Please model this.
Amino acid sequence: MKNKRSIQIAGFGAISILFLFALKTIFFLEKLSTCSAEELKTIYPRLHEFVFVLAQKATFIFALWFILLLVINGFFIYLLSKHSKKAAEIIITITVLILMFSGAEYTLRWMGYKPGTHTIVRYFTPVDSLYLKNGFATDSIGITKIDLEDRKIIAANITNENENYDTIRCVHEAYSLVRESIKLKNGKVKNEFASTFKTLAQKDTSTLSEFEKAIVDYVNCPVNELGFRSIAFKQYESNKPRVLLIGDSFTWGHSASDIYNSFADEVLAKGYVVYNSGISCADAAQYLAVAKQYIAVLKPDIVIVNFYLANDITYYKREVKPNMPIFFSTNAGNLIACPYGEYFKTPEQAYNYYFNKWQIPQNENLFNKMMAQTVITSLAWRILSKMNIVNYGSSEVGKYMSEAEKRKYVKPYCNTELKEIKELTEQNGARFILSSIPEVYRFTFNTKKDFPDVFEGLDYVEMNVTREDYKLDDGHFNDRGHKRYADFLIKQIEAHE
Model:
């Protein structure tokens, strides 16, 4: 009887070890789920298609793993309960602990936490070899926009209906414009802007106004001659107001199912002359630089700053410098080049800063390396670091942050930049609208009232948003949000026409 029970216990142990290895494999697949098929091809040249399918089904595989663990361990508990209640209780305890750990681990990963990372970061991925991606550039004024060489490639690919591009070396956000424009031109996008374009494209070009021609040209080349995702920056005759939109990824149109579902294009489809200067990762310093460069030239009737509360609030002055980017587009993500008022001169400097700031230093000792294997132990490491029991990152990060504290303003410095934009707008006879975009991301919901020091001395408007307006896994507007926000802006525009 003892031998039989020993065999059953040994079997349970072996199965548990196999399940733990399977769990590690599932977590690895979950990590690969963010990679495209082309990226996996470079890693697994022979098995990339198989790995891609498995990675995309990581959540389903985890659910299957969870059920199998319950069934098999339940079977072992049933067998052992016949011979030893104590042994059965021990196995039940172990099983419950494994289930709780794995469930908590997977939930945390779904929330965006990563093993080895002690602080949640949405858009940073540690890499073995860092390189820059094509797509964005910074001009001689210091304004970051689409690189004009990439603009030519994008336009040519739209003309040739070539949707293929190097996903490893090119920024998806810029080059996906090719696919979006081809879809619209081929009638596969159904919205008001698509209807407007279709009507104009069917007309004789000689009968179109300059503004109507600009809309047709915009679809054929969605990046204008200055590097913005917009119609050409020219003064057009129109019965409706000319509107300069200033903002970041929201204004660019991030997370709309089709880029032409974005609120900028929704407003454009209503006949308003919309100059869209939105660029992902832009900040209030860029907003001011855009205002200085283009308000006097375009003479818009209205300037709208779309201010995102999650990352546009800054307590540091970023000096806009020629050819110094807001961010480095890399395979590790868009690395902010000047987070606290001082620029990193190279992408490597930026990467090392963020890596050391957010990652457990695994090369220091075996304990750190072991703690970095799961999200739960990584967060536990963070608690230990707060208690000064383990080393919290590099001295370089500490030095940079101590210097940053000397540059920090008591009140948000972005207030000063927004006031300058307002003054510049009114000096040129235009109306200024400051629109606050709430931060809604998974379990976060912040509106202007949560930031009492922001917009001091400034009037602002804020749409009454709900979670249904956002794509909750990345914090941007979904199609419903873009449509509602477009209607909201149009009401603001028409308020004083």
